[in-house]
Amino acid sequence: MKQVTILGATGSIGRSTLDVIRRHPDRYAVFALTAHSRVDVLLEQIPLFRPAVVVVGSPEAARQLEAELDGTCRPEILWGEAALCQVASDDAVDCVMAAIVGAAGLAPALAAAQSGKQVLLANKEALVMSGALFMDTVRAGKASLLPIDSEHNAVFQALPAGFRGLADEGVRRILLTASGGPFRTREPASLVDVTPEEACAHPNWVMGRKISVDSATMMNKGLEVIEAHWLFGAGADQIQVVIHPQSVIHSMVEYTDGSVLAQLGNPDMRTPIAHALAYPERIDSGVASLDLFEVARLDFERPDLARFPCLGLAFEALRAGGSAAAVLNAANEVAVEAFLERRLGFTGIADVCRRVLEHFGTAAVCSLQDVFDADRAARELARRAIAA
Ligand code: NAD
Ligand code: MG
User: Fold this and answer.
1) Which ranges of 159-266 does DSSP label H, i.e. alpha helix?
2) Residue 119 CB contacts under 8 Å (≥ 6 apart), including other chains
3) Pocket around ligand 1 at a 6 A CB cut-off
4) How far is CA 361 from the centre of its chain?
5) Domains of the chain, start order
6) Nearest atom of ligand 1 to the alpha carbon of 102
7) Residue 267 CA: which ligand is closest?
8) pLDDT in tens, 279-326
9) Which ligand is nearest to the CA of 123?
10) Average pLDDT of span 44-57
11) Atom number, ligand 1, closest to the C-alpha of residue 35
12) Above pLDDT 90, what percent of the chain?
């Protein structure tokens, strides 16, 4: 029986994870569920999964949960970041799904890595912010890191088991596929006044609001380029983004002999989640067979950086190294939040990110404190730029 902690249990990835776990009561037990504010969703999840511990974001949410839980299942209820780190590193836990969105997920994901857990990483922002430190922590803690992001999970599946590095395995390039999001074919000039609802209406994937906006700007793919760099040791020139509107090929690995290996499937996150949960075995995920006759064709396009400036900014940050990716991530989080609250236009997201990245450039990162300092300074400048 594998004991699992799900960080961000009430989100899109968290709920998909519980859907897979529910199919295999003989294999997985839930040790802890965490959520920021959705007490209503937790109240549905707790009797079904009977966690030992539940962590929420505030003392008010903890009190509300305590008051509304019925008597049959009463987990320990905690709140705050220290509690997130505790349930991510508890001795009773084997596996941690890191599915909190944004920088808030960094500390608990690191706690899981440090304590040698099997870490299922959906929270790409954590790796983007602290890349080298995160990977060092995984190694030092003897954790195993399994990518949940569908592209990186696909690459992982197309690489040999016991992967030793791109050069050793004869890999030439990683081909990271991207749907292009809802605005793939829109004229850039027409994007100025798109609404949060339009930006969140993704053609192929149902996801949380932040990643949905990131997909519309293609910052998501930019963050994924940086994520691929850290996970697989790929240089910026070894990662090619390929727009593939059907989202059936989840990514590819090109070898020096010209072979290109791809992982395909329906666009449903339960496939990478089930892959990582059971690795190296395979289990049912609830995802239907891929109907290639229905798909009928696979298209590919080169990304247009004029249309998607955020993708270009992410490559710049990756090449700059040091704190640049943390700065870009922080500016983007603040800008996306402002866009979702209608305080910033859609094209303003890229403008804010560019201004903040240009202002700070890059600085050396020697400690987690350096990462948090870069993150905080970038957020402050982004907020000022938006308010001005
Ligand atoms: P979501 O918004 O649906 O859920 C986010 C979860 O994080 C919720 O459970 C919420 O309670 C929790 N959370 C939010 N802010 C928090 C805070 N300050 N402290 C503690 N918990 C907090 O997001 P999602 O779509 O499930 O995405 C989660 C992560 O997975 C993101 O990093 C995203 O980039 C990544 N991801 C998601 C998908 C997808 O299909 N949804 C695919 C690939 C990667
Ligand atoms: Mg992805």
Assistant:
1) 196-200, 209-217, 219-232
2) 95, 96, 98, 109, 112, 113, 138, 143, 144, 145, 146
3) 8-14, 35-36, 38, 57, 99-101, 104, 122-125, 149, 205, 207-208, 210-211, 269
4) 24
5) 2-147 (3.40.50.720), 150-316 (no CATH), 321-388 (1.10.1740.10)
6) 32
7) 1
8) 999 999 999 999 999 999 999 999 999 899 999 999 999 999 999 999
9) 1
10) 98
11) 11
12) 96
Ligand 1: distance of its center to the CA of 123 in Å?
7
Q: What would the pLDDT profile of 332-359 be if each residue is shown by its tens digit?
A: 999 999 999 999 999 999 999 999 999 9
* pLDDT reported for residue 205: 82
Substitution candidate for ligand 1 out of 12, 86, 205, 226 with most atoms within 8 A of CB: 12
Task: Give distance in angstroms: CA of 246 to centre of ligand 2.
Answer: 14
* 13 close to 269: Cβ distance less than 8 angstroms: yes
**In the chain, which residue ranges form alpha helices assigned H by DSSP?**
12-22, 39-49, 59-68, 81-89, 106-114, 124-140, 150-158, 196-200, 209-217, 219-232, 270-278, 292-295, 309-320, 324-340, 346-360, 368-387
Contact between 374 and 330 (Cβ < 8 Å): yes
Residue 202 pLDDT more than 90?
no
- Which residue has the CA at smallest separation from atom 32 of ligand 1? 123
Angle, CA 153 vertex, CA 148 and CA 210 arms, to 5°: 45
The atom of ligand 1 lying closest to the CA of 211 is 34
Helix spans in 23-149 (H) = 39-49, 59-68, 81-89, 106-114, 124-140
Picking from 293, 183, 185, 180, the residue whose alpha carbon sits closest to that of residue 245 is: 180
Q: What number of H helices and E strands is found in the chain?
A: 16, 11
Residue with tokens 């943390």: 326
Among 16-25, 172-181, 186-195, 376-385, which stretch is predicted with the lowest mean pLDDT? 186-195
Pocket test for ligand 1, best of 101, 176, 250, 379 (most atoms within 8 A of CB): 101
Prediction pTM value: 0.98
Q: How far apart are CA 340 and CA 346, in angstroms?
A: 9
